[in-house]
Input
Amino acid sequence: MTATVIAGRGIVTPQGVVLDLETAGVGHRGLARLIDMLLVGAGLFAIAGLGGLLGSSNGSTLALVLSLLLGFGWFFGYPVVSETFFRGRTIGKMVLGLRVVTLEAGPIGFREAFIRSLFQIIDILASFGSVALLTGMFTNRSQRLGDFAAGTFVIIDPRIVTHVPAVPFTPPMGTEEIVAAMDVSKLRPEQERLIRSFLLRVGDLSGAARIDLGHRLAASTSQFLGHDQQYGLPPEPYLVAVMAARQLREGGLAQLAIQ
Output
């Protein structure tokens, strides 16, 4: 039994328990896409103008080939570079407050960005984007074909959604030294929010779903943060330790709870 993602609701377990991540719908994604396409179009227009200048001096064939190469590179490379270096965001997504994440709410890398950009060509060529619109409207994660291939979906950035009440996480017994030395500086807000929500809702999960989701969250978190073998901790204590380390690093609630 695994968790699924319902558009507009977040990650939902088989028991209907919602974990706090708000999935971006087709409307938000469409507006972000429109902004990005305007930027891409402006770039292509500039490249075409450059090609015209080169054609007048160096021959039309060479200028045409160069323009096509630059145009394809800009069209294909813009989302790859943006989503890789801005951790799942293009300019359009920044304006709309959206972010692309993995199915475990982790940040995407070059591989995922490359696959998503490659499939955008298919989305556009297939009935001028109607396939992308339909898959976005009628899939649980509001995904397009590139999201399915890359294992990603788009969320509303947790840093701009409604404030979540603070909850202290104390280090599990015997992990105080581990927590004090644990490096959690790379932990992303969307990962932190998902871990927090899971830990607060474990009592609402069946045993199988709790074990499955806990293992997946702990594995993806430890891999991303570079924590070797989760410091030898079981999944749930490890996740609690991560949250406690995060709050201690911020000088926040964990220290207050210990006192």
